[in-house]
Each structure stands twice: as C-alpha cells, then as structure tokens.
Amino acid sequence: MIEEPKMLRIGPDVARRPTKDQIAKFQGVPTGFVVDAMFGAGAMEARIAPLSGANTHVAGPALTADNRPSDLLATLGCLRYLKAGDVLIGAAQGWQGCAAAGDRVTGMAKNAGAAAFVTDGPMRDFQGVLEVGLPCWCTGLNPGSPYGTGPGQVGTQVVVGGQPVETGDLIVADRDGVVVVPFAMIDAVAARIPDVQAMEIALDAEVRDGLSLPDPIAEILDGDRTEVL
C-alpha cells in the first residue's frame, strides 16, 4: 500500500538567494556571454523561448516549482515564497498537453515580486500574459488548463530544458534563451564575464574593419591538420 503523499513539500533551501551585488554583475549581460564564461555550459534547450519575442533581459535568483505533468500546484505554492526579483521556475517535466500557467498565475507572480517566469511547458492566455507584463519563457502556447491537485515540491532541484536548477541559482534570460548559473559558481562566472566581453568587443571591431576569416581558422586550413581530397 502506498502512503498518501503530501500535496506540497517545501525544500530546505527555499530561502537561499545570491546577494544583490552578485545579481548586479549579471544585469544587462547577454546570455551568450554568460555561457561563454561557463565554458559552454548552462543554456536551456532552444525550445524554451521568450513568449512574446520581445528583446527583454532578466537576471535574478531561481525559485523552483516541481510540478507533475499537467499540474501547477507547486507553482502556486511558490507565490508565498517569492522574493522581489526572483525568477519563478515552473517545471512541468516537459509536458506539452496543456499549459503550465496563464495570465492569472503570472499576474499573481508579478504581484508577489517575480521578475520573470520560466517553464518547460507551454503557456496560455497570450494576450492576458502580455498585459500582465511579466517576462515569460516557455515552449509555446496551449489553451488547455492545468490541474492544481499536486503533489508538488517548492524549492527543490528540478530539471528544466536539460539543465538542473536549484533555488538560489542565478537565471539569466534574454531573446536568445535562458541560462542557469549554479549558486556555487556565481562569483567565478561573474569574474570571467569582463574578459568575455573584452574579447567579444575586440572581435566585433575586427569584423567591422573587414575581417572575413579568423587567423586561427586560416592556420588550420593552411596547415597539416587539413587534408584536401
């Protein structure tokens, strides 16, 4: 006999957040720079994209909701624990059969202080979500309503878009997608971002000046690592 599960479980790290100074170092930083500073890691799958296509940038701590497919009780439970600037992560285990949230949920999340909503499911109420004004990243649209019966977990580790996410991890999201910076790596990644920015700026200048083939690629093409068939 299986014991009846609790409807909601709250994780022990539900209050963990990076500092304001740590978050500030990622404000306005393109997601591509963050991924480069993580040596190519951290990006969620491309199917998780901005709902409106608007050129919005968000950087803030994750608060995770671990929902069963077709359910959003954990997402609703997060509303009590949201702190100003949080990115609410509504994990739906990739379920595409109904929406993971709509305009009322995003409206309440915004009222509670959320800076954004990210899910690996679709959303509904497109026009209403736009009117709420909370930036959202999701897999698309589906008019179906989710249940709110659980069970679910708040503040525990989830996997969204192929990336593990824990409450307190730093989420950076823009038009290109969503990146997860693990809590323990925030300082190290922030320290590498200026070098990444400097290299990007230098390469941009070279392209504007007419660069058509980078020197390292020319060396490969002209050296013994290339074979002409």
Q: What brief labels describe this structure?
A:
two-stranded antiparallel sheet, single chain, alpha/beta, Glucose Oxidase, domain 1, 229 residues, 28% helix
Would you mind describing this structure in some detail?
- This protein has 229 residues and is α/β, with parallel strands linked by helices.
- It has one domain (8-206): Glucose Oxidase, domain 1, CATH 3.50.30.
- It is built from seven helices and eleven strands.
- It has helices at residues 20-24, 31-37, 73-78, 103-111, 126-132, 186-208, 215-222, and strands spanning 8-10, 49-50, 58-66, 87-91, 116-119, 136-138, 152-154, 158-160, 163-165, 170-174, 177-181.
- Strands 1, 2, 3, 4, 5, 6, 7, 10 and 11 form a nine-stranded mixed β-sheet that branches.
- α2 (31-37) crosses α6 (186-208).
- The longest helix has 23 residues, at 186-208.
- The chain is elongated.
